[in-house]
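Q: I have 127 residues here and want to know how they pack in 3D. Can you give me a structure?
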Amino acid sequence: MFEPWVVLRHPLDGRVQDNLRKWKTGGFRRISAERPFGDVIKSSPTPTSEKRIAPHPSLKPQAFLRRLVYASLPMGDGVVLDPFAGSGSTLAAANAVGYESVGIERDLTYVMMARSVVPKLAALAVQ
């Protein structure tokens, strides 16, 4: 299975490091001091335990989402916005790594689901 994701950003104003200082954005937060974020994130199918908590048809694994969300705020400051929140799995990932988040969802069924599952998914211990 292959699911490409694209990250779009406004053109940089000068160098990445200048944008990080001025706007706190423009790059990805490193995985560690020795390892940059990288172009490919390996992932496994969503665990059954997570699907039981949030039965959404396109639920992504918390392990994957937490890595992505962690990297999205390179200075560790800001708010994660999910304009298509669904069951709230991205919001849960943001909460799990200590970020504030805002979700938008037009399907009331998923809004109600997200209200109950976000704290449960955020509390999961993942590898």
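Q: Anything worth noting?
A: The radius of gyration is 15 Å. The first strand starts at residue 79 and ends at 82.
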